[in-house]
Design goal:
Arc Repressor Mutant, subunit A; FAD/NAD(P)-binding domain; about 20% strand
Length: about 500
């Protein structure tokens, strides 16, 4: 019997799990995928928004404002990359300047500090490569960038360190409640819990409807992105937005925490909650729109493209509340942008809801704020590298040359709580395959290490999801190779000229 069962191991589910382990509770975190952060969390803009954009009085505004300042301490304690680089909303004409004025006023209402509207010269000083047609910008210094999947992985690991239990490959198929106890059935197991928290992202309405009458609808929106090589990293210093429109904050250009450039997204309504394919039309739109911000974007340095889904709610705001019809069932739904920015504050709000259902929560006196040290070999001094290699020779073997990732780092990522089991889950934790070659050279070695450390055959190792084998067998079987005749050089004829 669990006290709390959380459905969905994205940024909200993992944030809530960690925050609830501050109390003496038995917690289960279940997810249908074979890794945490495998939904919207692994495919978004990675922006920690300042908080001027949400409509004042909404949960989005309240929790963005509260969540943003929490990232410095949270990411420091969990060793997650985070940088406060500030954001710029550009203006190209007088109408845009009026929009910036409205955003500034909203920011004041939302209690956002360190904002100002700057002129053309100030903008060019901050962003030398910006389109000369831009005449000003709203500058918000508190905006930042983060590693979103790295944060979710860290939160899950720390939650498990503090006693939570993680169950992957566990799609929920039914939820029932009898005598104040929920029975949650997956396709492989049953769980009993006093409280259920629905953090299922684009499928949150479907999970709600398993136990309660329909109370909201999630409308998935697809956003596509370009990722540029680190050699393009100096073109942009801040998160650069264009004036927002009816479909959201629009196409942005931003550095990533690891030095790449991210461009996107568009916003397209899709009917499927797994529609993460990229499209020629979407990418062309992003390319043309982004060039209004920077006229000389080096798209020939693109190393990856991807798409993610946003959980657009029909309510127009975050849904964070106990179901009015099923006591003990809590919906955390419609968490679109600024959901990542708000996640730590959402977790705190959920603790208050849980406290009203399970009164007198007792603090966990053994709660661990930090996680075990993570070694980034490339960032060490030469002396520190030598000491580490003497202690563990696996750190002397470079597996990913693009990112200088060692075998020791990969092995550590596999054996942590919520550890890596697939090629892409290694990639999300320690970055082999994120460089210019996109795994072209290091993937075979990563597969070998995963197979060895998990005592599996190499052809059982998956790239990411459950149906993503990398190896399907030998190119030629041993029997065929043995039966083939040895190669014989052709006879040369003398030809008279």
């Amino acid at each position: 019997m669990f006290d709390i069962l959380i459905i969905g191991a994205g940024i909200c589910g993992t944030s809530i799990a960690r925050e609830l382990t501050r109390f003496k509770l038995k917690i289960a975190l279940v997810d249908k995928e074979n890794d945490v952060s495998n939904g919207t969390t692994k495919a978004n803009s990675a922006i920690i928004h300042a908080g001027y954009d949400p409509k004042p009085g909404t949960l989005m505004a309240e929790l963005n404002s509260r969540g943003n300042p929490m990232f410095d301490t949270l990411c420091s304690r969990l060793q997650v990359p985070f940088k406060r680089i500030g954001s710029l909303v550009l203006a190209f004409n007088d109408t845009d300047l009026k929009t910036l004025g409205k955003l500034y006023k909203q920011g004041i209402q939302n209690r956002i500090s360190k904002m100002e509207i700057i002129d053309r010269d100030q903008l060019r000083n901050l962003e030398p490569e910006i389109n000369p047609a831009a005449i000003g910008a709203l500058y918000a210094q508190t905006a930042g960038i983060v590693g979103p999947w790295e944060l979710a992985i860290a939160l899950a690991e720390n939650a498990i360190d503090n006693g939570a239990e993680l169950y992957l490959n566990s799609p929920v198929v039914s939820i029932n409640k009898v005598d104040k106890v929920f029975t949650v059935t997956t396709d492989s197991a049953q769980f009993r819990s006093k409280v259920v928290i629905n953090c299922a992202g684009v499928q949150a309405d479907k999970i709600n409807n398993l136990i309660a009458p329909p109370e909201f609808k999630i409308m998935p929106r697809r956003g596509e992105y370009y990722v540029l090589d680190k050699t393009a990293g100096k073109m942009v210093r801040h998160v650069v937005f264009q004036p927002p429109g009816d479909l959201g904050k629009g196409v942005l250009v931003t550095p990533t925490v690891h030095g790449n450039v991210l461009i996107g997204p568009n916003s397209e309504r899709v009917s499927r909650d797994d529609a993460i394919e990229t499209t020629a039309q979407g990418l062309e739109y992003i390319q043309k729109t982004a060039q209004q911000s920077f006229t000389n974007i080096p798209l020939h340095q693109t190393i990856n493209i991807f798409a993610g889904l946003r959980a657009e709610p029909d309510t127009g705001d975050f849904i964070i509340a106990e179901s009015p019809t099923v006591k003990g069932f809590i919906n955390i739904a419609g968490i679109k942008s600024p959901g990542l920015s708000a996640a730590p504050a959402i977790a705190e709000k959920v603790v208050g809801i849980v406290d009203s259902i399970l009164p007198a929560l007792k603090p966990n006196q053994d709660f661990i704020e930090t996680r075990r040290e993570i070694i980034h070999f490339a960032e060490l001094s030469d002396k520190a590298k030598a000491r580490l290699i003497k202690k563990d020779p696996r750190y002397a073997r470079i597996i990913c040359r693009c990112e200088n990732i060692t075998e020791g780092e990969i092995v550590d990522a596999i054996h942590r709580n919520a550890g890596a089991t697939t090629v892409d889950s290694v990639k999300r934790r320690v970055r082999p395959g994120t460089g210019r070659c996109q795994g072209g050279f290091c993937m075979p070695r990563v597969i070998e290490i995963l197979a060895r450390e998990q005592n599996q055959e190499m052809d059982n190792i998956l790239k990411d999801g459950l149906n993503s084998p990398v190896l399907t067998g030998m190119t030629k079987s041993e029997e065929i190779r043995e039966s083939e005749p040895a190669f014989t050089a052709p006879q040369l004829k003398e030809v008279e000229c």
